[in-house]
Amino acid sequence: MAHYNPQMAGGGMPAGQQQQQPMRGAFSPIDPHQQQQQQQQFQHSSFGPSPQPQQFQSGAPMGAAAHPQQHQQQGVANPNFNMAYGFLGQDFQNNQAAQLGMQFAGSAMNAMQENVQQNVGRYVSMRQLKHYFDVSNIYVLAKLKTLVFPWIQRNWHRHAERDATGQVVGFKSPRDDNNSPDLYIPVMGLVSYVIVIGLIIGRLGVFHPEDLGYTASTALGIIVFEVLLIKMFCYLLNVGSELQFLDILAFSGYKFVSTIIVVLFKPWAPWWMTWFTFFYFGFALAFFMIRSLRHALIPESSAVTGINVHRKRRVHFLFVIAMLQFFYIWVLMRYKSSK
Prior knowledge:
This protein has a two-stranded antiparallel ribbon. A hairpin with a 5-residue loop joins strand 1 (160-162) and strand 2. The chain is 62% helix and 2% strand. The N and C termini lie far apart (125 Å). It has helices spanning 32-43, 68-94, 96-123, 126-132, 137-148, 184-203, 210-236, 245-253, 255-265, 271-297, 300-305, 311-333; strands at residues 160-162, 168-171. The chain is mainly α. It is built from 12 helices and 2 strands.
C-alpha cells in the first residue's frame, strides 16, 4: 500500500524549497494582501484588461445591464432636454422685457374691455337690462293670465319707485309690479315659437334645418319693423321719456304668446276654430296694447292741462298699433317650409 508523502505534493520539489501554505476552509477569511496579488495577476493575464464592474442598485431592472450604452445615451440626452426647457422658463421669468410685454398685453386687454363696455353702454345699460329680467314665478303666471284674459284686469297703472328723499327715480321691477313690462317672456316666447314651428313642419314631413333660421328671421323682422315704427311715431308726436326703447321691445314681444296658441290650433282644429282663436287672441292682444301704452302715450295730465296738442293724433296712433297686431299674428301663423 502506498503512503502519502507531503514532499511529493509540491511537484517533486524538496520540502525546504516549497513554501507551505496553510490550509483554508470554505468560510475562512481571505487575506487582503493575497486578494490584491490575485487581482493583479488576473489583469496581466492573456485575457486582457477586464471591464469595470457595473454597479447595480437595489431595485434596478434586470435588463438594465444588457444595454449600458443605450441607458448612458438616454441619461445624457434627457438632462440636456430638461436643462434647455428649464433654462428657457427661468430666462423667461428673469427677462424684464418679457415681463413688460405681459404687462402691456394685460393693459391692452383691460382697455379693450372698458371700450366695449362704454360703447355698449351708450345704447343699452346693463343695469336697465337686469331690471327687465328681474321676474318671479308669480309675475310670469300673472302676466300670462293678463295676455290671455286682459278683460278681467282692472288696474293698469305702473308703480313708481322712489328714493329715500321721496323723489321718483323710475318704475318698480316686474318682480314687484305685475304691470311692469319685462323681457323674459318675450325672449322665451320667441324661442318657443321657433321650436313649435319646427315641430309642426317636422310632423308634416317637410322639415329642413333652414326652416328654423327662416322662422326666426321672420319673427325678428316683425319685431324690428314694429319697434322702428313706434319709435318713428314717438319722435313725430313728441313722445319723450314716457316710453323707453326697452319698453317698446317688451310690448312688441308679447305677441308670441298669442301666436303660439293660434299656431297650435291650426294643424289639428277645424278651420272655424282656428279662425275663432285667431280673432280672439288678436282682439286680446290689441286690447292689452291699448291699455298698456295708453298711460305712456296719452298721459292723464294732458287731458286736464290741455298742453299736449298731439293728443288726438296719439289716440289714432295707438289705435293703429292695436290693429296691426292682427296683421303680425297672421304673418307669423302662416308657417311654411323654406324648400
